[in-house]
């Protein structure tokens, strides 16, 4: 069963990690505020460990002109731009295009749109999607709870480092009952810190958090490379998942603080975002376990044909080294 899980993990990791940068938790953030039907104030930023020249241009329809000059600056949260555009025709229903001058760096986009009446919509776009409608991509009929729920689901599915960590937890836990307990511990841990960080009760440096999240994956990879042993990770995965869950919660909160919480329905939006993360995480774990079970049934016919003692450890070691190298690259990139 272990080697089957290794093969299963290697496939999505190859798809996820090869093009991914170390900034999955810090997307391109765009805020578009319409002061009238034809006037739009735009603000956008990318994470700080990109080159300033990588900041994209936002290309509006041909009838829209820049008012004054574009403001540019860099600080601890990223490289930022602000600009005001005036259009001859209403912008609603047309939107704009993201144009990366140095090539698309595979960043997801969080987009918040504010209409002239003050109503706001938010949404997330997958990496590579550059056409952004106005207002935001989420349906206008959706309420705040639904929008933040969808945002949470989309974020966990785009958070390759978090998914990689969860996949390692599933591997180490092994049996489905231990998997349920271990993932529940991770959920409780990150829910606590997500709440306290999003509500500004506790503040931590996001770059430090991102480095430590990558380090947590490296530590699990080391455990996988060593194999089952008498360590706290293998004996008590629930304790490990709960502890590291506190750390990952700060990473989730970083995205939520990028978007911001509404003044009205703040707790509802926070709950919805957290539920979205849990829903996306449960779907991922369930799909992983179902595939492992199906492959396990198929393996009962295949294993007698193989030298199990000789080949059993190879996939585990390959997966462990792949996870460790990928997470080490993320850790170094986030630290520099």
TrEMBL record:
Q: Which InterPro entries match?
A: Put_HupE_UreJ
Task: Supply the alphabetized keyword list.
Answer: Membrane, Signal, Transmembrane, Transmembrane helix
Could you tell me what this protein is called?
HupE/UreJ family protein
List membrane-spanning regions. Answer: 155-172, 179-199, 205-225, 237-256, 276-299, 311-332
Which N-terminal residues, if any, form the signal peptide?
Answer: 1-17
Q: What is the lineage of its organism?
A: Bacteria, Pseudomonadati, Pseudomonadota, Alphaproteobacteria, Sphingomonadales
